[in-house]
Amino acid sequence: xxxxxxxxxxxxxxxxxxxxxxVLTLALGALGGWLATLVHLPLPWMIGAMVATTIxxxxxxxxxxxxxxxxxxxxxxxxxxxxxxxxxxxARFGDWIATIAGLAVYVALVTAILYWxxxxxxxxxxxxxxxxxxxxxxxxxxxxxxxxxGDDRLIALVHGARILMVVMTIPVGFMLFxxxxxxxxxxxGGGLFExxxxxALILGGCALAGAFGARAIGFPAAFVTGPMFxxxxxxxxxxxxxxxxxxLIAVAxxxxxxxxxxxxxxxxxxxxARVLLLSLGSTAVxxxxxxxxxxxLRRAADTGIEAVVLAYAPGGLAEMSLVALALAIDSAFVAxxxxxxxxxxxxxxxxxxxxxxxxxxxxxxx
Length: 366
Known about the structure:
Blueprint: H1 12-38, H2 44-58, H3 67-82, H4 87-90, H5 97-120, H6 126-133, H7 138-147, H8 152-178, H9 197-216, H10 222-236, H11 246-262, H12 269-297, H13 305-312, H14 317-326, H15 331-357
């Protein structure tokens, strides 16, 4: 049998198998996401897709996601993040100077401690340790960490376990002490046909211009940060009040989660169990520091200590905002701090990583 020349088109059988693997991957991811919504998991489409495709990969099934499918869906998530910056939220920023400054300190402290933790006890490489330690969103840390050369499988496992643990423990604490009763998950976006053509053009323009513009100037994680910046600008100046339709956000999470799970082929179950145990320790560190910062900043905030706990808790934006809404706690305060935390990490973390973590060692003194 003649081998294919380097750079030559793949034989039809190989191309057909790749297409079949890609279709199967997204189908399994969508099924896992749907099942996760039935049991009310946090970030159900992302985590459900990741779990389903990870199990399939570990079972020996060949899975695959095309890069050209992944890119546009990453941009959708960037637009969604930017849409959280509304004029009403921005008008209150002046009252939150102390807690926003404290949030920056919290992020830096958590990242430094957990970077050492994952390097020392997990033996992660520097990129993977840094983005596993950074308390950003699951989607964002997987995307940015992968683009900078980290192991997105380990990063996803660490952050996915962290979100699950926090979402399961914080509401229980409020149930025990504040008579909290869980409510239904609010939609992350509107209906597909509820958005006006003008709003759709604006958000679509933010996604396209942001992604390719950021890539052209060499911005890190261009397909998420570029759309996020343009979407934030469009919402702050009042050009748009819409979010991407919920179905597009769900599809984006399925694609990203499926892509992560598809990379677990050949990974041993021992490795997964070890990472989950490491995640338990890192989550305990984060929650402990959240309590400390809430106690210190409770008087500086223009809201109660409960809102500060939720604003600093290392859970997901949607999940912590849901608890705030159900308890009639300042949800704008909580959501804005989570968005700012994600923005701080997505924008600052890559530059900080290159400057501090990848800094070449100083030559020895003569």
